[in-house]
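Lab meeting, item 3. Inverse folding demo.
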């Protein structure tokens, strides 16, 4: 297993680093002109770091949610958090709400995600117990509501913000810059550290609440802490680059097939491979039809959907 883990880490890092030098313009790292350095430092490096942060957050969140919900089809967007972020971001883009230029959009999206996560958490908590079934249903219900509101706003909008809002919702990374990376890194790092510190509790939750109690873990407490970590990571990821599907759904399944179900290793490796996948998707999106770019979220869906159907058919990931 150690050899597989090392292989996964090396391949993931190689993909991320390669995405810096490969693109519509190939950059030779050993012979860079002034223009090459400007492209690398001002455009590609912040874009690669943004893609990696988003992918890491989604990969780790998917592994956590599939554990606390005991549902192999759970992904980071099932809790409605992305719906709240999208609604606030679309309001900011279409109606020009907020100050500070583009930076206001990630800020609004982050606030929307955190508020939505708080509401979902409150609905899920009843009689001193954090019910994972209520968490799932509340997230789905709120997600549908916010999606409808987003479609309503886009439907009545006639200004130039409409196209920008649509691209943002599909996971457009072309607006990545250095200003947004530090706060995204901060919240995603906190979420990762919290989840890793509770990885043993998550292992216990996957065995069932009764066994978790017998092993010395409080299921409600563990779910609340892990839910907070997911909220932080998903809020930061959506605010950085919009909604990007299939990363959080697929990565945990792929890693489980390689190293097993121990969340001490599953969470960090799902995170790393998620970052590599999104870097690869962004590389394809900005290279395939250059000079036109495709949002990374479209590429991940085109890559992820067929592979997920293959897993569903061949690997019996839902035990059927």
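The presenter then showed the designed sequence:
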């Amino acid at each position: 297993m150690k050899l597989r883990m090392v292989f996964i880490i090396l391949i993931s890092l190689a993909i991320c680093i390669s995405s810096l030098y490969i693109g519509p313009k190939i950059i030779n790292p050993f012979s860079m002109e002034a223009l090459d350095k400007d492209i690398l430092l001002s455009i590609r490096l912040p874009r690669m770091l943004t893609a990696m942060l988003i992918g890491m957050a989604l990969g780790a969140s998917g592994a956590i949610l599939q554990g606390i919900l005991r549902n192999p089809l759970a992904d980071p967007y099932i809790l409605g958090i992305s719906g709240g972020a999208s609604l606030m971001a679309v309001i900011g883009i279409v109606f020009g709400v907020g100050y500070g230029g583009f930076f206001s959009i990630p800020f609004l999206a982050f606030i929307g995600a955190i508020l939505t996560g708080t509401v979902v958490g409150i609905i899920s908590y009843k009689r001193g117990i954090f019910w994972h079934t209520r968490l799932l249903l509340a997230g789905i219900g709120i997600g549908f509501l916010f999606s409808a509101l987003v479609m309503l706003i886009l439907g009545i909008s006639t200004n130039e913000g409409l196209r920008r809002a649509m691209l943002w919702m599909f996971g457009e990374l072309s607006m990545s810059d250095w200003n947004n990376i530090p706060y995204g890194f901060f919240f995603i790092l906190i979420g990762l550290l919290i989840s890793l510190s509770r990885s043993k509790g998550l292992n216990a939750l996957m065995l069932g609440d009764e066994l978790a109690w017998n092993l010395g873990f409080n299921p409600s407490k563990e779910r609340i802490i892990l839910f907070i970590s997911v909220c932080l990571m998903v809020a930061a990821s959506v605010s950085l680059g919009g909604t990007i599907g299939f990363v959080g759904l697929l990565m945990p399944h792929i890693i489980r097939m390689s190293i097993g179900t121990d969340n001490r290793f599953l969470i960090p490796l799902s995170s790393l491979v998620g970052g590599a996948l999104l870097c690869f998707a962004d590389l394809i999106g900005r290279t395939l039809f250059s000079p036109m770019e495709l949002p990374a979220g479209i590429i991940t869906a085109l890559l992820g959907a067929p592979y997920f159907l293959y897993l569903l058919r061949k690997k019996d990931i839902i035990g059927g």
